[in-house]
Specification:
About 80% of the residues lie in helices and about 0% in strands. By secondary structure, it is mostly helical. It has one domain. Helix 3 runs antiparallel to helix 4. The longest helix is centred in the last third of the chain and has 40 residues. The structure holds protoporphyrin IX containing FE.
Length: about 250
């Protein structure tokens, strides 16, 4: 199901929930009483927003207390890179979680989580381009062309930009179906991120974490494929029943 449809379904579900009073007559349905979900969603969103700042706070705290280790730039690059991947995985897990638990409200955290992935990716890239390359564009381009792990990391970052730029609700309304097609790029981004991590660690003969995150991404993508195939089969069965009834 598309995100537009999901958003609509979630909105309908919220409206039909027992705790939601219908709008008073004369308001044309525009005024909607706040449901129980609406009441906890705001504090929960603030909680998630603050919690997601933990990786940044940790870097700042370690920096202030001289605990970034012998190579602070490497520490910051690796930390922001890993947290980008963590937020990408959490963002990808939102829809499966919603389907498995039936809690539609989790979808309302997805945009924030996706934007945090972009935020940490930007910090990651900025650390590299600033402290590793001192804004030497020629050096950066050479690196992108020469080192495959940088090439795929850069591709993942470039693909993230249009997703972040079109994350506001206004963009969703304006783009319609094209929004959903565009945002499917998140799967390609996750695969590129794993390749980036894998290639980087392969040189160091330390593939434990890339294998772990690779398995998480494969499971999340596999769930999507299984859900899509299940939907198609259910559609086919429904069509067969309708055909059966009309020919009888
Ligand atoms: C979505 C985009 C990206 C993700 C998810 C990502 C993720 C990661 C991860 C997980 C690591 C390893 C962290 C660790 O060692 O624990 C890493 C390291 C690194 N990444 Fe990225 N990255 C991305 C984009 C980029 C870009 C655009 C660049 C630069 C053009 C880049 C340059 C690097 C460098 C230089 C390292 C450290 C290599 C080392 O310490 O030897 N990454 N990244």
């Amino acid at each position: 199901m598309s995100l537009d449809t999901q958003t609509l379904t979630a909105a309908t579900d919220r409206r039909n929930r027992p705790g939601v009073r219908p709008a008073p007559p004369g308001h044309g349905g525009a005024v909607r009483a706040r449901s129980g979900v609406d009441r906890w969603i705001r504090p929960a969103k603030i909680g998630v927003f603050v919690a997601a700042l933990y990786p940044l706070a940790r870097i700042v705290l370690f920096g202030l207390t001289d605990r970034l280790g012998a190579n602070p730039i490497e520490f910051i690059t690796r930390s922001t890179g890993l947290w980008t991947l963590v937020f990408l995985c959490i963002t990808l897990a939102v829809t499966p979680l919603r389907r498995m638990t039936g809690v539609n409200a989790v979808i309302r955290f997805r945009r924030m989580l996706g934007l945090y992935a972009f935020f940490y990716a930007t910090l990651h890239f900025t650390t590299y381009i600033w402290f590793d390359k001192w804004f030497n564009v020629a050096e950066v381009l050479k690196d992108i062309g020469k080192r495959p792990f940088i090439t795929v990391g850069f591709a993942a970052f470039v693909l993230l930009i249009p997703l972040a730029a079109t994350s506001p609700k206004a963009a969703l309304r304006k783009l319609g179906r094209r929004w959903q097609t565009l945002h499917r790029a998140v799967y390609a981004i996750a695969v590129l991120a794993i390749l980036h991590f894998w290639w980087m660690k392969a040189g160091k003969h330390d593939l434990i974490l890339p294998k772990l995150y690779g398995a998480i991404v494969i499971a999340l993508l596999g769930w999507r494929v299984a859900f899509w195939v299940g939907g198609k089969l259910a559609d086919r069965r429904r069509m067969a029943v309708v055909r059966d009834r009309t020919t009888r």
